[in-house]
Amino acid sequence: MDVLERDLVVAARKGDRRAFKALAETYYPRIYRMLLAMTHKEDVALDLTQDTFVKALQGIASFEMGSSFYTWLYRIAHNVFLDRYRRVRTAGFQKDFDDEVKSPIAEGAQLTRPMDPSRAVETQERLIIVSEALEQLKPEHREILVLREIEDQSYEEIAETLGLKVGTVMSRLFAARMRLREILEVRLGRKG
After folding, report:
1. To the nearest whole percent, how much of the chain has pLDDT over 90?
2. What is the domain count for the chain?
3. Between 20 and 30 A from 125 (CA), which of 5, 22, 28, 188?
């Protein structure tokens, strides 16, 4: 945690709403992007992001600063996501997570240089296929892939974020990649 962030956290723990607002403004886009990658629904991701920051505000006084603020915030977002996912699954309404209209991964792809139109269409189609394959993974596999491949976290950061051992992160990531590969092979009609 850098000095400015530490000062903001200390102030927020003492009830300074402006300090918490500054922290929220810093991390809101990152938490939203992660939840969007997990849910594939803009409205659900927005709801979950808001819930995350409400819970963070309510619990900031108990944050012991043993980890980075983002790690603590991510754990809250993770729990908010899992709570919603379990409620939706238990109630039999999967549409909050499965009824994707748009692919946030495909929409978020930034092209650094112009492509010829046929190549751009092919790239977009591949991104949509990968996004749809991610939806078919178990939440813990989807989550670990999002942290590693989209959030670009190291194994150690993922371990701290999820409260796992590095070895568990590595094995879970391996399993997630293998499952994603199987789904993509079926989807693309290929055998490994």
Report:
1. 38
2. 1
3. 28
The boundaries of the domain holding residue 23 are 1-101
Q: pLDDT digit string (tens) for 63-77? A: 988 888 998 999 999
The verdict on residue 54 lying in a domain is: yes
- For the residues of 85-140, what is the DSSP string, one character each? HHHHHHHT--HHHH--SS-HHHHHPPPSS---HHHHHHHHHHHHHHHHHHHTS-HH
Inter-residue contact 17 to 6 (CB < 8 Å) = no
Does the pTM exceed 0.70?
no
Q: What CATH number is attached to the domain comprising 37? A: 1.10.1740.10
Residue 66 tokens, joined: 């043993």
From CA 126, how far away is CA 116, in angstroms rounded?
A: 16
Residue 30 counted as domain residue? yes
Residue 157: how many other CB atoms lie within 10 Å: 18
pLDDT, residue 105, reads 46
The answer to whether residue 29 sits within a structural domain is yes
